[in-house]
Write a structure and sequence with these properties.
The protein is mostly helical. About 80% of the residues lie in helices and about 0% in strands. Helix 1 (about 1-15) packs antiparallel against helix 2 (about 20-35) and helix 2 (about 20-35) packs parallel to helix 16 (about 300-335).
Amino acid sequence: MLLLIGSFLLLLIIGVPVALSMAVSSLLYVLVDGTMPDIAVLHRMIGGVDSFPLLAVPFFILAGNLMNIAGVTNRIYQFAVHAVGWMRGGLGQVNIIGSVIFSGMSGTAIADAAGLGTIEIKAMKDHGYPLDFSVGVTAASATLGPIIPPSLPFVIYGMMANVSIGSLFIGGIIPGLVMTLMMMLTVAYFARRNNWGSDAPFSWPQLIKSGIEVAVVLATGAAIWGIFVVTEWPLLIGAFLVIAVLTWADWYFKFSAVMALMTPMLLIGGMTAGLFTPTEAAVAACAWALYLGLVRYRTMTFKSVAKATFETVETTASVLFIVSSAAIFGWLLTATKVADVLSNAFLAVTDQRWVFLILVNILILIVGSFIDTLAAITILVPILMPLLLKFGVDPIHFGVVITLNLMIGLLHPPLGMVLYVLARVARMSVEATTMAILPWLVPLMLALGLITFIPEITLWLPKMLMK
């Protein structure tokens, strides 16, 4: 145990990437132990990525990249301006609502920060907002990416914990709305304290138009449900009719974001209706993004699609290398009974579920400050799963808790990737960006407390929809 964990920590300290640290420390353990062939490392690593649910990873990454080059980002931003720009601190509220919508497409916090963040920070700066406020609200809202479905961390967690990825996706919806409310209240507080006004005139026609766009999306979702679940029409015929009617309405009424808003409806509606699995939903999201970029908006070229594909390959390779390395590392952690040692340590401290959740939250917050999100999930889940069963914690509930903890870890040093992305986008020092983000940890920690100690926030919707 000391050899395995000690070598892993030493490699991390000297700057070796997490995935490589796990693979090397695992191989070192196998060579020194001598009770198993070294080829076992390779077999376990291959087995770790030989999984159907993991096919969702490259397709969700590709869908996010395609949405960016399809021009969806600007349309989402304009929709958010029309919907909430008239509130006090308008562009701060726009920042949050834009992230809520974009979260239904990207699945990652970094994509949100890099995609919408560039537009939002520039717009807020042009409207006279302090740069630290602009960066802080952008960082906080980016954490919604992996909570509101689809979510790459949920895919990895679902595979590691052997729980339904569809239930995780649906379980993240209400927690995401709780986080949204907390952040919008924080913007309202800053706006009142600094006497900020609105950034777009209040307009009933614009507000009604935004409401109509949402209604059209919901009606289309209901139509999809009726066509495929009630009438049982052939899939291709129903899909063609829905897309044709939606495209005509979008063109005729000059909607700004109906087609973009259909992405989360397509994913969640399709999974709850039983039309496809999360992996198939990822493929559907890619097909929808290609339709928007190549047919409806005509903003894509084959060159830009190729570029998005190569970026997806690069990102997927790094993600799956982490998963494969964690497969052998997690197996050896189990073999060396690290889970039993940790379990006994927790049980020696408390036998109360709520105290256990507090201790686990502290542990994950610390780990998330030093280790990449996906690597942290692949390392921690095999160790903590036996403890969850002993303390009676629902795995779906815990999946949202661990993901939110790790998202908070992305906002501060030493590893916080969202921190570094926004420092580059805003051209600020890392230290100044850290101080700008600090006040926004308050609403996020409040949301974390509510989601941790009121499990029904997460579990109610999956129980209702996934019966």
